[in-house]
Amino acid sequence: MQMPQIRMQSQSAQLAIQSQPAYQSIQQPKADLQIKQNQATMSIRTTEGKLTIDQTQAWEEMGLKSVFRSARENSQKARQAVLQGIARVSREGDEMLQSLKGRNVAAEQAARKANPAPSETYITYIPSNFSVKTHYQPGKTDIRFQENKPVIQARTQKPIISYHPGKVNFSLKQHNSLKIDFVK
């Protein structure tokens, strides 16, 4: 004996999904930039150095003196010579008074005048060491800078953004079904 049977055959529904991805684009235009730089200014102020050379002593030691100085020195020497001459004559006069005491003063004076002391000789055309005086006053240099800051002008650009949203489409690819059969 056969038993009746129920046969079921089912088919599931199937979905079809189609998607289109989203995408975004961003563009950034360059900024406008202007830079202006003025030159720095520089000023230099100098004071010149000063060199002073005084050769007066060296020239005088070589016998090359100014007319005024020579006249002054010669007048001083002449005055000194006159005073020495007066002193000598006075001394000789006093010695003559000594002749009364039995001394031969005239012979002594004649011997002194006949044999004078040798005169001293000097080389006068070579000046002494350090007779030329020098003095140097150094100069000064003052340097000043004035910087000029740059002038910067910047204009930014907004970014260009475009966005395209994605899409998802759903559809029924296959319907669901159920088939039932009775078999005896």
Descriptive key words:
184 residues, alpha+beta, 12 strands, two-stranded antiparallel sheet
Report on this model:
- By secondary structure, the chain is an alpha+beta fold.
- It has a domain at 1-29 and 161-183.
- 26% of the residues lie in helices and 40% in strands.
- The chain has helices at 56-61, 67-98, 105-114; strands at residues 5-11, 14-20, 23-27, 32-36, 41-47, 50-54, 133-137, 140-146, 151-155, 160-164, 167-174, 177-183.
- The protein has a two-stranded antiparallel sheet with strand order 1-12.
- The N and C termini lie close together (10 Å).
- 0% of the residues are buried.
Explain the layout of strands and helices.
Layout: E1 5-11, E2 14-20, E3 23-27, E4 32-36, E5 41-47, E6 50-54, H1 56-61, H2 67-98, H3 105-114, E7 133-137, E8 140-146, E9 151-155, E10 160-164, E11 167-174, E12 177-183
Antiparallel strand pairs: 1-12, 2-11, 3-10, 4-9, 5-8, 6-7
The coarse overall form would be: rod-shaped
Q: What's the overall average pLDDT, rounded?
A: 87
Order of helices and strands: EEEEEEHHHEEEEEE
Number of helices: 3
**Proportion of residues in extended strands:** 35-45%
> Which spans have pLDDT < 50 for at least 5 consecutive residues?
none
Please give the radius of gyration in angstroms.
Answer: 66 Å
Could you say which structural class the secondary elements and strand pairing correspond to? alpha+beta
* Share of helix, binned: 25-40%
Main β-sheet description: 2 strands, antiparallel
Q: Please give the alpha-carbon distance between the first and last residues.
A: 10 Å
Number of strands: 12
Protein name: YviE
Pfam family, one: DUF6470
